[in-house]
Amino acid sequence: MNIEQQLDFEQMKTTALEQLRSGKSLYGKDGAFAPLLKSFLDSALEAELESHLNADERLSGNRRNGKTTKDIRTSSGTISVQTPRDRSSTFEPEIIRKRETILAESLENKIIGMYGLGMSLRDISKHIKDMYDTDISHTTLSAITDKVIPEVKEWQSRPLEELYTIVWLDAMHYKVKEDHRMVSHAVYNILGINRDGHKELLGMYVSQSEGANFWLSVLTDLQNRGVKDILIACIDNLNGFPAAINTVFPQTEIQTCIVHQIRNSLKYVASKDQKSFMKDLKPVYQAETLELAELRLDELDEKWGKKYEKVLESWRRNWSKLTTYFRYDAVIRKLIYTTNTIEGFHRQVRKVTKTKGAFTSDMALLKLIYLAQRNISEKWTMPLSNWATTAQKLAIWFPDRMILDLN
């Protein structure tokens, strides 16, 4: 029976026009062209088996051995196809491979895209059902998103540039299931600016806690991947962090986040004094020069030192790392005096991960953050504002390390 006899083209044409007007899929369940697509796939599979059963196969005794029915999900819906079999089970179809249930690569890309936007597997399944009239199990969805894992591992070990001008280092914390209980894990992120002024997430690492020892291993990994120098590193006030950085990159100048220092200070200032204390503290970190900042710190100490001795001791103990930004102009100061740049990146990531109460594994966590950063970094196409001027100033401040390509 030829294809014209199998299919009623006049009826197909009438149905197609009706479905086009109503916006229904022509290839999905009950779609006008679904029988045509099924016929094509069935015929293609038959042709593949016929090609497989060549003279040598037939001489060996291999023959046709019936058919099996399989549902194939496509971006237009679900189609049932008849896959022919051979007695020797040596037939490996190409158009629809064994155990393959998703035909359209574009559908897989859509699923990964939705997952990367923070949609749950349940929401993705419902969306696929609504849009394409096809059912996909959570197991299948999970298997599809797992296809990103090799890409994540390759990204984590990719070579890096030799120099990064400014690098921010900070951690995010998530709940991960471990031995049937919830454990807090830290995701260490390193966001950098290369010599051309472009943002780049250099890496992300998972550990059970944020500590200087783990940061040392992170920095060593950056070095092993090709980073030879970092001009300025912006960090929170974690104990031992500066020493960890200078162990791997001894020339790097370190700026501890002013905002973290302020937050920690206010924890130990009585609520009735906080407004007045902050009024006196602002002239310290907003001073135009380091000398003026030191004078304002002395004035702050004179007024509040007896009442909040430990708070002022903390500022003096950390003073050298808190005041690195005074060496630079307003543009550089704004970039480095806080970790706001990487915290802004973290806020964007949390918009994606906020729907997850807990992650089944560290890789499940990294997989989603990787997809989130991939979407975020698509916007990082331009260098930072006025980078040409900033780069020239960095070349003056770091003459043997920041070398401009003026050819």
Automatic annotation (TrEMBL):
It comes from the Bacteria. GO terms for molecular function: DNA binding; transposase activity. Keywords: DNA recombination, DNA-binding, Transposable element, Transposition. GO terms for biological process: DNA transposition. Residues 74-83 have a biased composition (Polar residues). The keyword DNA-binding applies. Residues 56-89 are annotated as: Disordered. Belongs to the transposase mutator family. NCBIfam families: transpos_IS256 (NF033543). Required for the transposition of the insertion element. This is Mutator family transposase. It comes from Pedobacter changchengzhani. The lineage of its organism: Bacteria, Pseudomonadati, Bacteroidota, Sphingobacteriia, Sphingobacteriales.
